[in-house]
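Hi V.,

You were right to ask for the full record rather than a summary. Here it is.
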Amino acid sequence: MARIKNIELPNEKHICIGLTAIYGIGRPLARTICKNAGVNPECKVKDLTDEEIQALRKEVDKYTVEGDLRREVQLSIKEKMEINSYQGVRHKKGLPVRGQRTNRNAHTRKGRGKVVANKKKAGK
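Predicted structure:
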């Protein structure tokens, strides 16, 4: 099993797909990393040699990934919240940040619906 940045890459997948298990690496970047490291992207993770794994590690080290990237993202969110930017306010309120509608969707950010007690109708 190949271990890069303390992440176990899935054995049965192509190296190009397996690298996407690392936070901050998508398919295009994974292809670039494979090309620069001189590794065949169609090769399975379990078939990699030690030299190829070392080349991949060295190439991945050039990019901000995993813990450093997570920390960077969290710090930028905190900064937006501190300066009370529009996005920061949306983060504080737990609402969608990037302009999505909220009246009929956004359940991922807003959570389950809150039950409102029934109001009695004004009787005649």
